[in-house]
Design brief:
This protein has 69 residues and is an alpha+beta fold. It contains three helices and two strands, in the order E-E-H-H-H. The protein has one domain. It has a two-stranded antiparallel ribbon with strand order 1-2. Helix 1 runs antiparallel to helix 3. The two termini are 20 Å apart.
Length: 69
């Protein structure tokens, strides 16, 4: 992983295929695998489960795009 752009509001990075797969798997496990109450989820991660699932969906779409090329 390499930082491409760092600003106060945005971070842009490049990931290789394995790093993208790892990120996708870890986020999927946190969102859908382990049993964490919604309150604990937000306390531990700082985001709601729904917010995390939205990011998971976007990362999944990127993963599908990369693996279909």
């Amino acid at each position: 992983m390499n930082a491409v752009k760092l600003t106060e509001k945005d971070v842009a990075v490049t990931l290789n295929h394995d790093e993208l797969a790892l990120l996708l798997g870890a986020l999927n496990e946190v969102c859908n695998g382990v049993r964490i109450s919604d309150a604990d989820f937000q306390t531990r991660l700082g985001f709601t489960r729904e917010q995390a699932r939205e990011v998971l969906s976007r990362i999944h779409d990127l993963y599908l795009k990369v693996t279909s090329e």
